[in-house]
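re the bet — no i am not wrong, look at it urself. input seq straight from the record:
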Amino acid sequence: MAPTPKPAAKKQQSLTSFFTPKTVNGLAAVFQKESEARAKARSPSSKDAASPSRKRPLEDPEKENEQPEKALKKARADDAEDVESSTFFSKTSANQSSPSRARTERYRYDDSNPRNTQEAQENAQEDEDAQEKRRQNELHKKFVKKLGHPDALAWRRRLQDDAPAGDDEEADGEGDEDEASAPKTKAKKKGSKTGKLTPMEIQFLDIKRKHLDTILIVEVGYKFRFFGEDARIAAKELSIVCIPGKMRYYEHPSEAHLDRFASASIPVHRLPVHAKRLVAAGHKVGVVRQIETAALKKAGDNRNTPFIRKLTNLYTKGTYIDENGELDQGSGSGAPSGGYLLCITETKAKGWGTDEKVDVGILAVQPATGDIIYDNFEDGFMRSEIETRLLHISPCEFLIVGDLTKGTDKLVQHLSGSSTNVFGDRSRVERVPKGKTMAAEAYSHVTQFYADKLKENTQDETAAALLDKVLKLPEPVTICLSAMINHLQEYGLEHIFDLTKYFQSFSTRSHMLINGTTLESLEVYRNSTDHSEKGSLFWALDKTITRPGHRLLRKWVGRPLLDQELLEGRLAAVEELLEKQSTAPVAQLEALLANAKTDLERSLIRIYYGKCTRPELVSVLQALQKVASHYSTVKSPSDAPFTSSLLKDAICALPQILDTVISYLEQINLGAARKDDKYGFFRDEYQTEDMQDHQLGIAHVEHELDGHRAVAAEKIKKKTVEYVTVAGIEYLIEVPNSDIKNVPASWSKISGTKKLSRFHTPEILRLITERDQHREALAAACDKAFKDLLAAISADYQPLRDAVSALATLDCLLSLAKVAAQPGYSRPSFLPSSSDPTISITNGRHAIAEHTLEGGYIPFSTKLAHPSPLAHLITGPNMGGKSSFVRALALIVLLAQVGSFVPADALSLTLCDAIHTRTGARDNLFAGESTFMVEVSETARILRSAGPRSLVILDELGRGTSTHDGAAIAQAVLQHVVTETRCLTLFITHYQNLARVAEGLDGVKNVHMKFKAEKGADGEEEVTFLYEVGEGVAHRSYGLNVARLARIPKKVIEVASLKSSQMEQEMRTRRLKGICRTLSDVMDNGPDQLDHLVSSIEQL
């Protein structure tokens, strides 16, 4: 029997109705179907006739003889089904039905008047055109609303391109206990209302609106999540998946079709790693945590509300101290930053152009160590003073108070935005406004801040001195201090300003001030090739073992001493360590430093801030115990195994903290602390009353749970039952499925298998809830006790920090002793301060070059002294070693005043109060200054700053302009430093006439770099550099020889050689003519022109 075609007909009807346009008015459709049904009833054979309004499906043969009434009912039912069709077709039918009807109307057969038919077709065509135009207008409006705004295409492209593939585990769904995780964003149905935000998203938006400049990491269940634009940034920086969605945190037409935020997620245990990466990339990062647990929430009054979330942590480059260790300094090869957060403010400029003056105040804070540097100074239009301080401090973050002048702002942008030229990575910049009454408000704010500290420490004498010291700060520094306190309060680090012992003035006269130009030209902190630390003076000296020692040595190198007594003490300590380098005392000191691997300086400040973890605290205390017990027998400086007072004082400071450290370690259960077990962290006798109460409560509940087994066994008619734990769910009672009939109805089935089921009784549920509440309360009590312990240790921060500083001093001295042990190093000899300025070097070498060159460095000997020679005028061939010679001399002087041995057979000198250099040729595009402008500006600063006890180095001054102008400027400057300033000077030049002028200046000596010039096998002149300093003048620079070494094409060199010979001949001819004219004048006018004649002959 053939299958009935009824299902096929139904399927055909369904498909046809899907593609058939629907009419707008459902009643009209019913009437239309009724007329079709009647016509069909009258003429059954007309089933294939075309419908005037829609295509009809093929009818089932068995239904061809249906009665008209039945067909009418079916038509009405079909129409009702059509009226209830999808939202899309019901909404668009107004635009689609009329054109469709008009298109089919023209093909309808009409046996009436042809003219009427033609008119009807024309009317239908006009109606169709109007309807089509309206439909296109509607589509255009929809397009503009969805994709017509200016950044729509860029936004779409960003969704596709900026969501890199990430870890699969982080692309999985997230769970939460109060709200479902955001599903993948999908477009809303047409006509639906705007997507409603979840309670968690509302919480997020409330926090985000207050911190729009911060990337928020939100705790949601067992993951941390990013939302909106934060998710896009996190996906790019962390290489994780970003689920597309709304990027903006406000309504925008381009995102009207989206009902969820874009999101990305990371596992809980990866938070420190990812937060650190975002901070190192220069972002401000905030962590939003759930501050209540599920158990306490269930027992509280807010059980039906979302978890309470708050911003608990904020991090930037300058304030990130939550992880033991320093931030990565980016991918650049530059030297690392100093970790300082620097606040700067200045007054409006006075004067104009080169006479411009600004009053600047700075305050730099290093939260990781507690160091604070401040200064107030006046700077000129070159902003050299600001540049000097920024290069010394190397801040990783700027806080700018008010508007800076154009020159200062450009300098800050240049230094902070450079990834290779300055700090090794881009620095973060924040700005805060500065009102007209800022000075008065800052004074009041700072006074109140320290007055509150004074109230908290009424018995502390050091606390009473806080306010007095702060009130003496200059007004610009007070403004910076107030702004910095407000800024650090956001991060919970404002307590760093309690440590006023570590307030240091940058401009103290106990140290030599090395300006920024000198730091760069002498390569003190980084080399001039790739701007990394390798190849710098600090790199050559750094043999330290500990991180505090590394940081202290960096300060020593950048701030040489001006106190001769301190210098002699440091040199005596280095010499004693050098002499005893193979003895037991030095071996004992090396063992102490080798065991101090923990960065104690950073860890102590983390304890002070209350951010230390339990394992870290134990590690720090044990490291301090090792340090203190290493010299436990030393009770006074005389007990130390050294004779140097500096070494004895440093060693004596270590064992003084031993009793304090042991008293804290006695309170701690070391095994539990290493496992970060908060419940067993304290020993029993040091547990607080709250901890003991909740532990008893937990024990009582567990006892009741154990007793409840007998009651449960009686309920299910068994002798005994045992609790099992499955999938982390405790206290389950297993019942075989054959005995399921004995289980009370009040028991809750948790899980089961084919053979058994697992249940919780109402009493078990109640007791588990009570136990969880005790556990949560116990955890809170343990956290409070731990914070109280950190606060107690913070009260002893000062003696603990002093011991760490003593350890760093020992590390630096031992490092300098290792440098002194190298071949050819000797102890410098300082002349009395009453002596005339003198620098005398015997067989000196370049402190850096001898470590980087494959061959040995050829030594030099020289002497600068008052009254003569005050200055050396240095000539010689290109690449002859002139610049290396002057830099080597400056580095030897710097090393001596750091307290280090020097690479020379002998050095005697008086203390230099400054080292000024003007070397190289560079422009300053960010300030709009040409090469020559930079050259003369730096020279002008030297002429203003240098004193009789300064060392000045000028390398090829005047090269940036014409020969005559350059020679004139060089001659005038040389005369000024020799006759007016009368400072020790090294002056390099290629101007021959300047060398002749120098012979007539008292205190100037002509020296040159020795060489040999010989004819080669090919007849060309070959120059051999001897790299030795000799007296006299080098009359040629041999630039063609350097061109040959640089592999300039031979034809070019031949042409240059010919031109050089021609120019020399022309110069000689002009001089001969001048001599003839002078001789004629002598014959005519007498002996007055005789001196001129002699000078002309010497020039020839």
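see?? The first strand starts at residue 215 and ends at 220. told u. also The CA atoms of residues 71 and 766 lie 66 Å apart. so pay up
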